[in-house]
Amino acid sequence: MKIDHVAMYVDDLEAARGFFETYLGAISNDVYHNTKTGFRSYFLSFDEGARLEIMCKPSMEDPDKTLNRTGLIHLAFGVGGHDRVDELTARLKDARYEVVSGPRTTGDGYYESCVVAFEGNQIELTA
Fold this sequence. Notes:
By secondary structure, this protein is of the alpha+beta class. The chain contains two helices and nine strands; from the N terminus they run E-H-E-E-E-E-E-H-E-E-E.
């Protein structure tokens, strides 16, 4: 069994798609739009087969996303090595995204950094 995809609602569908395309190499399908409900979505594909569905619809709730909560806390992306983690973290920091940890080697041996990206969502970059 495998996880087919993960889905997340976002407020700004185009900005979220742009983030994943620009920084993480996502390839997007064409937008799906249900004109009756206002629901819109993209499926984003990544080079090793993972997929992420980003979605929006009118009148969504958007409570504060603290980094210490239950539920989904981050999306982790293996970016291909220590140097790539360092480079991408610096690039995101230069683009004014908040780096909340790293780059560093964690106690369980991961080399990673964590960045608060679009709409308060945390992205983890791993070697």
